Amino acid sequence: MKKIILSTIIITALITFWVTKEMVNSHQNNYSIQEHESHSGHGDHEDHKENITEKVLFEFGAEVDIASSGILNKTIELPGEIQLDPDRLVHITPRFGGLVKEVYKQIGDKVNEGDLLAIIESNESLTVYELKSSINGIIIDMHFTKGETAQNSDNFFAIANLSKVWLNLSVYQKYLTQLKIGQTVNVLIKKDFPSISGEISFISPTIDEHTRTAIARVVLSNSYGWLRPGQFITGFVTISQSSCSIMIPKTAIETIKGLDVVFTKNEHGYEPINIKIGQQNSEFVEILSGLKIGQQYVKKGGFILKAQIAKSSFGGGHNH
What distance in Å separates the CA atoms of residue 218 and residue 239, rounded to the nearest whole number? Predict the structure, then answer.
């Protein structure tokens, strides 16, 4: 009897479970169909598409700007190396040979003019004297150890003032006729850092027989310490300037079906327009036609809109 009752309870529970599950699934399916139908109208679809576009642009860091005129700098890209300014480097050596009693500074220490570096006891007079810095700078090399015997030629503190450094650019022969003293040179240290600029102050009159290049020297301010001697770096030399009716960054240009386009904003949202390109440099480009002064355009992140167009083409235009 007990077995019959237990079997009845189990069967009843299973039937209740399956019936409930089917009711829930049916409700969810009906809700999904109703939700899809509520968004199937043409006007609602367009509004939804524009809102998604604005949201996606914002999330991916896209930027919108207004088309305007500008000055396009034509530049030459040259490799170079940061070097010390010899006039800002000193070697401080003992006046007399003797025993090093104390050493107060190490490589990498910043010093000011008059700072005490070491104390030495003269071999001849047995009197002690102080070794002091003669400039403001940083110790880049030293040969001093407490307790050793210091000699004039072997022991020294090398102190460099790095507030200004030299950039020696290697100039290929084909560019020599385009360079002259006084031209502006821009140096990009890092992607998110502002560029540093200077002017060409010297062009070597000879060509290196091994590298077949000449040297163009630029004195650069290094107040932030971003430039380090021995560092390889690229300089962009401005050799000419042109006035452009419309100039935009290259990041604004996308390619669709082999054509150059820029996404502009209008009453329908963002749409691509064909453009004709004129002069250009490494960052900016002149627009000859297609874009108008005062027109809003996507100057960065247009690839998001390009991807939406591709998605619409493959998906029949539905962007839900």
Answer: 15
